[in-house]
Specification:
By secondary structure, the chain is α+β, with helices and mostly antiparallel strands. The protein is 20% helix and 34% strand. It has helices at 2-12, 19-32, 64-68, 192-201, and strands spanning 54-56, 60-63, 81-85, 95-101, 107-116, 123-129, 132-138, 150-157, 162-169, 179-188. The longest helix has 14 residues, at 19-32. The protein is globular and about 45 Å long.
Length: 202
C-alpha cells in the first residue's frame, strides 16, 4: 500500500508543481523508513525478559546493576538493560527472536551492538534475518559495560511478509565470558531514485 501511495504522488503531480511535489514525496519517503523492531534496546519487560521478544533458556534481559555487583563497571550506553547469552556457564545455542512485518524483495538495514565479557576467546553470535545468515566473533572480552560494545550495520532482503530476526549464541559456552546484545533496529533502505528526488527537493 505504501509503494502504491508513493507512485500515485508522483504520477498525479508530473504536470510540474515543482518543489511542492518533491516535498510531498519527501513526506511519503519519511514514512517508509520507520523502525520495525519493537523494544530494540530491551528497556521494557519483567526481569530476565524483554517485551516484544521471544527468549530461549538463558538469553536473558539483564541490568547494569546486576553485573556491577559481580566485578563489572560502567553501564551500557544504550540504556540500563541488555541481553546476555551463556550466563552462568550455560550451554550455547540460546537465542532471542522477533518477527518483523516486511515487504518481499525490499532491502533493509539491520543495526545492533554486541560485545564479549570476561576472558573467554570464543564468543560467537549468529544472526539470521531474511537473506542474512552470518556469525560475528568477539574474542577480546571486557568487564567495562561502557566500552565493550561493537556496533554493526548489515543489509538484507526480505523474502516474506513476515521475517524472523534471530540472534543465537554459538560460542563454546565457556565459564569465563558471556555475549551481550543491545540497541537492535531494522529500517527499510530507500530506493536510489527516491534518494535522488530527496536531494533535488532540498
Amino acid at each position: 500500500a505504501l509503494e502504491q501511495e508513493m507512485k500515485m504522488h508522483f504520477l498525479l503531480n508530473r504536470g510540474g508543481l515543482g518543489r511542492g511535489v518533491s516535498l510531498a514525496g519527501m513526506i511519503v519517503l519519511a514514512g517508509a523508513s520507520q523502525a520495525l523492531v519493537t523494544n530494540g534496546s530491551f528497556q521494557s519487560g519483567p526481569e530476565f525478559y524483554a517485551d516484544g521478544w521471544t527468549h530461549h533458556w538463558t538469553a536473558w534481559a539483564r541490568t547494569d546493576s546486576t553485573f556491577n555487583g559481580v566485578g563489572y563497571v560502567g553501564s551500557s550506553p544504550y540504556g540500563g538493560r541488555f541481553v546476555t547469552f551463556n550466563e552462568g556457564n550455560s550451554a550455547p545455542l540460546n537465542w532471542i527472536k522477533q518477527d518483523l512485518v516486511t515487504v518481499v524483495g525490499q532491502e533493509y538495514a539491520l543495526r545492533f551492538a554486541y560485545g564479549a565479557s570476561g576472558n573467554d576467546s570464543d564468543q560467537r553470535l549468529n544472526v539470521k534475518v531474511g537473506t542474512l545468515d552470518t556469525v560475528f566473533l568477539d574474542g577480546t572480552g571486557s568487564y567495562n559495560l561502557s566500552t565493550l560494545w561493537q556496533e554493526v550495520e548489515v543489509n538484507f532482503f526480505a523474502t516474506s511478509t513476515t521475517t524472523e530476526l534471530l540472534f543465537t549464541d554459538v560460542g563454546s559456552g565457556g565459564h569465563q565470558g558471556d555475549m551481550f546484545l543491545d540497541n537492535v533496529s531494522v529500517e527499510a533502505v530507500p530506493e536510489p531514485a527516491l534518494i535522488g528526488l530527496l536531494g533535488l527537493a532540498m
